[in-house]
Every structure is written in structure tokens, then in C-alpha cells.
Amino acid sequence: MASSLIFREAFFEGEGDDRTIVMMHGFGGSADIMASLGSLTKIPGRWLFPQPRIAVPAGGAPTSAEASADSASRTSARSTPAGDTLASGWAWYPRTEAEMARAVSEPDYVPSLAISSITGLDDARKDLDDFLAEQEVDIENMWIGGFSQGAIMAADFILRRILTGDTLPYGAMLLSGLLLNRHIWPGVYENIGIAPSTRVPHIFVSHGKADEILPYERGLELRDAFEYLGIPVHFHSYDTGHKLYTRELRAMKAYIEGVGDDL
Questions:
Q1: Which of 65, 71, 200, 262 has CA 20 to 30 A from 98's CA?
Q2: pLDDT of residue 151
Q3: Closest CA to 63 of 217, 255, 199, 211
Q4: Is the pTM above the cut of 0.90?
Q5: DSSP reduced 3-state for 74
Q6: What's the Rg (C-alpha) of the chain?
Q7: Which residues of 148-193 form beta strands (DSSP E)?
Q8: Strand pairing of 45-51 and 6-12?
Q9: Per CATH, the architecture of 6-262 is what?
Q10: Residue-range domain boundaries for the chain
């Protein structure tokens, strides 16, 4: 089935450029924002920046990133336009008008997702899975990540595949995310494990200690979830809020390129 996502694409030549890097935006963000981050880091490989067609209504609070806005001129000529609909931003979920209204008006809505059910999450998961299949992404040679809601989606992707025993991605970059449904995981951990022969993904997690949207503690829980499963995590913390900074991107770039030698 064809994916419903729109996307941008870029390619940067260099050692390790056979990898695919999938980078997802946060609530109120866009594929264009994430594409500008790819242009800043220029990590070799095929970059994909998917974007759902779920618009954040006027008055929403887009996530922010310290990045150049000239992605159109600095990404590859193979870039695919990310759509022509004007909106204050885009979201992976929620997918009902009532829940979206809560998401843009209630400060505690997003942190509450760590312990509550999410309307539209199954649809968002299917959109992502369909997109990766449509793009013929080699999961074993893929880095998947994102900022905020994009990081949440990436972490959820990996944990879902651990539960089902599916092929795991090569690595992940989880920037200012959280662990969904954290209240169910203690029981789940007791019933799953990763076979000793399984290649575990390389995980980069970063979070700001002054994050006013997704509290720092949520980032620690995300780190701990992977470590509990026996997956080492390269964790970075910063005295910052809910925003991306160039030094964080430099650390991410160094990590990805540093572990790329064993591809």
C-alpha cells in the first residue's frame, strides 16, 4: 500500500554513504526543518525526512531548532517537495480534532502521553512502516531518529520491533523524546529479551535539563528502557530547553560517523 506521507530527500557523499538516515520532525515541525538539519551535519548517506499530512492548527506551538532555513538550496537536487499546504506545522498524532485541540492548548498534554493511550498512534505507526517499505529502506543499514515527537516515533519503532522479533535498525538518534506508555513496560520487560546473537542498535539519546515541554526525567526513562534491555546508550545532556543546538548535532554526527566503521 502506498504511503500517505510526503517527504524531502537528500544525499551526501562520503564514507558510509550506503546508509539510510530517516529523521522525523516534532509536533508542529516539518520535513523542511529536519532537512535543514541534515544540511548542517552532512552525514554521508541517503537522508529521508518524512512528514504526515496532519496539520497543527493556527495557534499551535511548533517545536524549534537552531538550524539554517535554506534547506531548499542546500539539500540534494533529488529532494522531494514536502507539500504545498500552508499550516503552522505538522504532527504524527493525535488525529482527531478534539485531541488536537487539547494538544495545542493544554501544557500538560504532551508529557501525559507517557502514561496514556494515544489516538491515532496506530495510524502513525502504519504510515511510517508503509513509508519505509515504499522507499525500500534496508532496515539493517538504517539510522532512524528525530526530535521531540519524531524521537518518540523512532523509539517506539525500535521497541515495537523488539517485541515482534523483527529486524532492528543499525542505530537511532533520539533527541528530546520520551518513552510512550511507560507504565506498561515493567511488565513487558519481564516477558521479552533480545537473543544473544542479535545485533543491537547503536542508540544516541540527548535531552535538555531545562526542557519545558518534555521534562528531563522522561529522557532518562527513555535511556533506561534501552539499557534495561541490554542495549548500550550514548547519552548526552545539556543545560537547555526544548530546542536543538548545533553542539548537540555535532555530537550526533561524531557518534554516527564514529560507529560507522563496523557497517
A1: 65
A2: 97
A3: 211
A4: no
A5: helix
A6: 17
A7: 171-175
A8: antiparallel
A9: 3-Layer(aba) Sandwich (3.40)
A10: 6-262
